[in-house]
Amino acid sequence: MSAVWKLAFALAFIVASATSALGDRPQKNVEQELVKAAGSRDNLTSSDFHGFALYAAEVDGVIYRVAVPEQPAAGKPWVWRARFWGHQSEFDVQMLKRGWHVCYCDVGGLFGSDAAVERWDRFYKFAHETLGLHRQPFLEGMSRGGLIVMRWAARYPLQVSGIYVDNAVMDFRSWPGATYEDRKGSGKGSAASWKQCLEAYGLTEAEALRFQHGPLNHLEGLAEQRVPIFTLINEADDVVPPAENSDLLVSRYRELGGPVTERRRPDLGHHPHGLADPSSLVRFALASLER
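^ thats the sequence. predicted structure below, dont judge the formating
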């Protein structure tokens, strides 16, 4: 073979390799699959999320968001965030830097109800089966996001690597209901959100006060699978009082033998959420895949 032909073959190989690598880019795959799911490229938007590609699409009337790392980590692990996308995102950014995807499926106004769980079921199928993400996402729930995180996890304990709940609602009677076990709760509550919550669950107020299917009622499966839970608790929280929410999660989960890590901040109210230095949470999430 002449030197000219050898050079031509070498150049062709380089071009083909580059084209193949371009086609395998995680960003390109996510973009294409979201367009398919949404049914039209008009339903897709792309933007920058702290230096990473972020794609959002409306799928059957529901907003999906997927932030994509430059190079996915082995097994394509992912953080599944509930509510308040982009708020106090230090942890999310650190996980993206480590090759994790960060995903979101909007369940606003559903307060972790069965309709919210079913919506998350559909997103999980998309993320795991279509995008090929890990079968066990790491769940992240701030404030009212704790309701969907814990209710979905309780239903599917084998499909969860670990859980991070941040000043999180564990009982909708406490927030937004401002009631607790047939008595006035210690939090502020929200009349408008309480009405919306009752509608989402299809309950009267009397039925809601007797409801026994919240996150605190179904921890056994998670404990049996030893799913690790990281709790951030601002002890002066008068919106989502720890005594009616996070404290009960910690005590009940420990009684069941479940592994739980507490991070307490004694002088803070419901805000701020998140950790300015999320290194301890990052280590916790990374370890959750190795158990």
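The chain is about 40% helix and 20% strand.
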